[in-house]
What we know:
single chain, alpha+beta, four-stranded antiparallel beta sheet, efflux transmembrane transporter activity, palmitate, MdtP/NodT-like, membrane, lipoprotein
Amino acid sequence: MAVGGCAPGIKLDRPQIALPTAYEATPGAAADQVALDRWWDRFGDAQLVELVDRALADSTDARTAYFRLREARAIRDQSLSQRLPTGNVTGSARIQSGEQFSGADLFGTTLTSKTYSAAFSPSWEIDLFGRLAAIGRGARANYVVAAYDYHAARISLAADVASALFDARGLLVQRNDATETRRIAEELAATSRLGLARGLVSGADTARLESDVATARAEVVRLDTALHNAKRSLLVLTGRADAPTDSLGIEAQLDAPPAVPATLPALLLTRRPDILSAEARVAAATAQVKVDRLALFPQLTLQGSGSITHTVGALGGTNGLWSLASGITLPILDRPRLMARLRATEAQGQQAVVAYEAAVQAAFRDADIALFTVTNDRPRLADLTRAEERSRFAFDAARRGYGIGLTDLTTLLQSERTWRAARTALTIARAQALTNVVSAFRALGGGWNPAAPATAPGHPPVPLPIAAEQPSTSTSPLS
């Protein structure tokens, strides 16, 4: 016992967490839990809901997360079984036959015996100092880590699908705008060619307009390519990588995004799976430190053995043998290696504490930036909308003036390019406003329900009793 008594006591540092009481921007009203669980329902967009739900069910990312969780659950069960007795049962059967000759018996007598035997050798480690209990706590903590990682993967997937859909819609709107720009350029070029034939327009002006036609056509091709690629990415995200892009209908609409619910920074500690996963990793590291520290203590093992043999036939009978012994292991010569391992484990635990602090800081950064961005999107969109309206009015006026000879070509082209730039900026901003709201929901920890089981097509659901599996606060430095 003196050997274990020299083992150093180790306690991981408490995480240093400092969060403000409120965000600098609060774009919406207070929200309940359900509003965040399935945030994509708040958009009122049937296609968005369908694509996100399909991705969460069929995508390779979702299925990979499911099987990682099943693996972690099996590893947990394997670790917990170490507290149970172990042992093997063996059995054998033997038949012997022979001839016995005596007296006048010329042919002899056949003697047959059958022997059956079975043996059992159990072994059980007595958890004197709590090493096996610490192993169990670590196994449960690692399972909790996997459960939160499962949810984090699905949160990212839902956000990626929504962002990809809004990007594709934005590209389609831009393509339609580019098609309109091409049509206008072709009309102006045709008018200029007629004027050139009548000697009313110079060849240089006509060439400039024909150059604009070629540029407009190239822009349509570029946007066609970008739209195709965006649709292909969206099909991959939803588990339909082999489907033709034409099977995915995209509408050229960019609706106003929903309001992001107002929450408090402190809620990140219970809503963000990455923070909860980091916390569970600290609990697992704490348990591992205790396991490695208790490896310096003696280990008591009970070992038993038993066998029974039954013989049928000549000299038949039954024999049994039982024994029970105990053994104690003292890690004397192995102590330097165990001490070095303990120091390494303690350093890994301190890294887990720092990683938890970093996760909290990163989560607050993400949420604060996302909410501030969403709040500023409103006046920005209003200004861009007005800029597009006024530049379009200016272009229409310049075009009418050019038709009656009151406006020169340079003024016309300049007004057309100004309107085109304003229109493109507005389209990009409207699509970006939608993806910014998606980022805000993601940053606030939306998109998951702790009570829902893990699922995958064709496989049984895996329950996620996260609250029940959460390691005891008495073993965690977060308590």
